[in-house]
Design a protein that fits this description.
Elements lengths: L1 H68 L6 H30 L13 H31 L1 H7 L2 H18 L2 H5 L17 H4 L2 H45 L9 H37 L10 H13 L4 H8 L1 H12 L3 H8 L1
């Protein structure tokens, strides 16, 4: 009997040891995999960020110039929203990509930034520009929702005057909302890719008050815009489906023939543009949003889920990419914009081509 008990005890101990040993090597292998992904992303960033800056700055400038000419077949209201979005994206590229991410990647070449006492001012401008970029997308989505789903409000809301007031209010509120970063951060740069890229005093780092303010910042941008854009697009799609069915029944009533609907065709490009811009924002901002919320929840004691640093690195890369993709979206969805873009790209080579032809 005693030998049997010892045998059972030995078998249980062996199983526990093997399970612990296997769990250790599983975690060790997982750590190696995530570390390799992280370092691979860091290597990619050395080429990705400079290329993104070289392409993004002129592309957004060209977009602004083309849209300013208003030869793209879009309404004045839509054009002004797109110009505002392009200008905000340009500021994000300059303040975040060029003045923050590239110096962090090439830290040895930009080591002198650590001695420049401007980080808290930089943070205010950067987060204000990011808020403008995000909320301009929301205002554009709401404008299209009113134009498509609320015809009684369209004449009052979808006007240049209302658009100017809305964009002005969003800009002022974005600046006021982010002034607290000036007092929360110190003037020195950390030269590390973390959500808080400035040096932070200890009393701020572990303060529940400042933590709550930062958590609210992440909720307002981009969590609330996510929800608003999704809801507005759902309501817009629902209205389009219902109204198109009703119009189709009325236009085919009695004849059995489905004639062309010029009004729906004129809305088609605007609707496609709206949905692609919204989808682009949601897809490219999702990972950054998840990591930002998790990072703040970690300091509130919520640590049941672990996200590796490569999630943040990839999230930042995708978020910055969203500032350079709108030109491609316009070129794909808007025929006249595509033609204007071709003319702008051909312009530097026009004298050379004329010289060859002569």
């Amino acid at each position: 009997m005693g030998d049997n008990l010892r045998s059972i005890d030995w078998n249980i101990t062996t199983v526990v040891r093997r399970f612990t040993y296997g769990l250790y090597w599983f975690n060790h292998g997982q750590y190696i995999l995530t570390s390799r992904i992280y370092f691979a992303l860091k290597i990619m960033q050395a080429g990705y960020y400079p290329i993104l800056a070289i392409v993004g700055v002129p592309v957004n400038l060209i977009t602004i110039v083309i849209l300013k000419k208003r030869n793209c077949g879009l309404s004045k209201c839509v054009t002004c929203y797109l110009v505002a979005m392009a200008m905000a994206d340009q500021l994000v590229i300059i303040l975040d990509l060029i003045l923050r991410q590239i110096p962090i990647v090439f830290v040895e070449q930009f080591d002198f930034l650590g001695s420049i006492p401007l980080c808290n001012i930089h943070a205010v401008l950067l987060f204000a520009a990011t808020d403008c970029s995000v909320w301009f997308t929301v205002t554009f989505t709401f404008d299209r929702f009113v134009a498509i789903c609320c015809p009684k409000l369209k004449s009052k809301y979808c006007s240049k005057k209302t658009m100017s007031v809305v964009l002005g209010i969003v800009t002022v509120l974005s600046c006021l909302k982010n002034i607290f970063w000036y007092f929360m951060f110190s003037t020195g740069y950390r030269m590390a890719n973390t959500p808080w890229f400035c040096q932070v005093p200890d009393y701020v780092y572990y303060s529940p008050v400042w933590g709550a303010i930062d958590f609210l910042h992440n909720i307002l941008t981009p969590c609330v815009p996510f929800v608003l854009i999704l809801l507005l697009n759902v309501f817009t799609v629902r209205h389009i489906v219902v109204s198109s069915r009703a119009r189709r029944r009325l236009r085919t009533h009695g004849s059995g023939v489905r004639p062309r609907d010029p009004e729906m065709e004129s809305r088609r490009k605007s609707i496609i543009l709206l949905f692609i811009i919204s989808a682009n924002f949601i897809l490219l901002w999702s990972m950054f949003m998840v990591y930002s919320i998790w990072y703040r929840m970690l300091y509130f004691g919520y640590n049941s889920i672990h996200l590796h640093n490569f999630v943040m690195e990839l999230g930042v890369m995708l978020q910055l990419l969203s500032c350079c993709t709108n030109t491609a979206i316009y070129a794909v969805t808007q025929t006249q914009f595509r033609q204007q873009l071709k003319n702008v790209l051909k312009f530097p080579f026009t004298p050379f081509l004329q010289f060859i032809r002569s």
